[in-house]
Structure formats: C-alpha cells, structure tokens
Amino acid sequence: MKKLSVILFVKIFFISAIFAQKHVVLVTIDGFRPDFYLEEKWDTPNLKQLKSQGIYARGVNSVFPSITYPSHTTIVTGVQPSEHGITSNALFEPDSVTGKIYWNFNQITAPTIWEAAKKKGLKVASMLWPVSAEAPIDINISDIGSMGENIRSSYAEPKGITDSIRLLLFPNQEVKWGEDEFNAPASAHIIRQYKPHLMTIHLISVDHAEHTTGRDGKAVYEAIHHADQGIGLIREAIKDAGMEDSTLLIVTGDHGFYDVTQQVNPNIWLVREGLLDPDKKTDWKAQFFAVGGSAFLFLKDKQDTVTRNRVLEMLNNLPENEKKCFRIIHENQMKEIGANPSASFALSGLQGTSFGNSVVGEPMKEGKGGTHGHFPDTQPIQTGFVATGPKLNQGVSIEEMDLKDVTMFVKEYLQLNMPTAKGRSSQPYFE
Q: Quick check: 273 pLDDT over 70?
C-alpha cells in the first residue's frame, strides 16, 4: 500500500509539473508598425484579436541604428547595442567591402534568453532569428540566407531538419526560407512536433515590401496580411500542441519605416574635403558608414578631434538644401542610447532621406521606396507589440515601451535567471 502511495504521488507530481510548465512563443515581424493593428485599413484579424484579448503598445522604441540585427539582439538580451556588441547588420570595413554580416551567436557579448532557458533545462527553438547561428538552441534554422541555403542547412539543428521540413511540408516546391509563406508553416510544424518552452520566430516579408514600395504600397498590404495569416498558423499550432493554456504569445518587431524621396551620399562630401580618397581605400581620415536612415562617422584615429571638428564644420557649411536632409546625433546622445561606441557621431535622415556609401558622383540623388535606421525618437520609426497569455490583462494599452522591455516579459514569465536584462518589469500587466 505504501509503495502504491509513493507511485501515485510521483505520478501526480509529474503531471502537475507538466501542467505547470510555461511556454513563450516570441514572434517578430520585420518592419512591424503599430498601425498594422491600430488602424482598420489593414487586413490583420489575428493581430487585432490578440490586441483585444491581451495587451498592446501604441509604440515601441527601437535602438540606434533602428535596423534588424541590433534590434533583434536587444530583444533577446535586454540591453542596448553598445553592451550586446551587435551594432549594425554588417561590420564597418573601411579598407574593403566583403559584406561581413553579424550572423554568429558568438559575436553577441551579453547573456541571452536562449542561454538562460537552456540553463534552466528548457527546450528552445528558433526560426530565422538574426545572429543565432551556432547558438545554444535545440531546434534552430538561423538567419544566414545571404551565405547560401546549403550553408544555412549545414548550421541548422538538429542535423537534417531543413530537408525533413521541406519534404514534409513543401515536397514539390523550392523553399525560400526568407519568405513568410515558408517559415511560418515551418515554425508551426516545430511547435507541434517539439513543443518548445521558448521559441523565437522572425517573419521577414513585410520589411522587403516596405523597402520596395514605402509605408503604404500595395505590396505592404499583401505582406502584412500574409504575416497575419502566419500568426494564425502559429496560434493554431500552439492549440494543437496542447500549449494554449500555458503559452505567452508575443508579436513584436524591430523598427518602423519612413518613405524615401532622396538618397544622400555623405562620403562624397568627405572626398571633396580631402578626408577620403575614393581611389585608395586605405587613404582616409574620416568615413561615413551608411545604414539606411542613418550614417555613422568613423575616424581612422578615434582621438583625432581636429578631423572630427573639421567634419562638423563642413556639415554646418553645406548648402541649405543639403543640410536640411539630416540632423546630427552627437556623441553624448550616442552614448546615452547605447549606439556603436567606436563611431564619433552620426547623421539621422530628415525629409525622406536615406543614406548611401557612394564616393563618386553628386551627393544627392532621387530616392524611392522606404527605409529605416533613423534615431529612434519619432513615431514612424517605432515598432509594435501585442501579447496574450495566461493571467495577462485584457485590452490594456501601453503608451510607449522599449525593445528591452520585451525581454522582461520572456524573462519573468519563464522565471529565467538573467540579471543583466535592463528592461522595465512586465509584472504590472499580469493579474
């Protein structure tokens, strides 16, 4: 009898532990904007239902530059780029351009939610998350498409998973992992099959549409609708996996967007000033590194205040039609927001301006489409946030939050040991 009681106790304890286990599915829509769920014109029934059933933000402040890789790394670390080390999508290469991208996990210099979850013994999965190659993730298809699909497959975990998903879900198609029509169903499959305690998912297609057509192009309406359908597939998978009553589902983004009417190439100003030789890439004193809506100034000698002041004076003396295209983000502002500490200062675009890296031709030319990367203190560059889950308040609006606040929802819901995360607590939004 005593032995039977012990067996029953163990079974009850085991079952209770299963039911007590929590899950987080964290989805980012690249280029996600609050108006996608706040305004009726967008065909996003899933996002709007999540908004009404849970909590939502009217605006989420990005990082600087407000681009994909630094933003996504802030979400998984809870700190700004100067601390987590991913200060742009690509490395600044003054002497040559090889297109080196921040894609390997070992380039992150701050603790992540993936590591914290693994240390707690939780199962972790990820789909196309930036800077996640070789991360401590059990099921992982990382965002290294620019390296080629064979390279992506070779880094995927467990080995052979990309082929197995392709054969199961897309047997007669060429799989393009960077498109939501493939990665959303694949994410849903992983949830059903593996039931991860933490899954991070990156949906990409909306960003491509906004770059091509601007904020309000027809392609954007189609892309956000398809992304919303992807969210629907993920919600269905959570339910099918028996995780509905234990899952915190978060949908957020990395940045908003501005429409582009002109492109400015500030390195041409430096060439004219004699600070950059367009023919000898090693011969330079100052160089701008353009990242869409911003451009960061690097000095060959970081302590060269003479050159720094010379560039500032040059910018101040530009013709009015050129000077009105940007504002200067000074060193103290860069430090406060946690931007690249190696840059001297930066330019942030105004009046439809995007930046380029050309060193020949005219400094200004016509532009089109959309861009991001701007200093994150304006509404158009804000991203969005909706979340629903057990004991999460319903219909609550957050006026403004930061990307590192998203980290806290994951950390606190899963009770992760992650003291380095610096966002505001999510506890006020739970019953």
A: yes
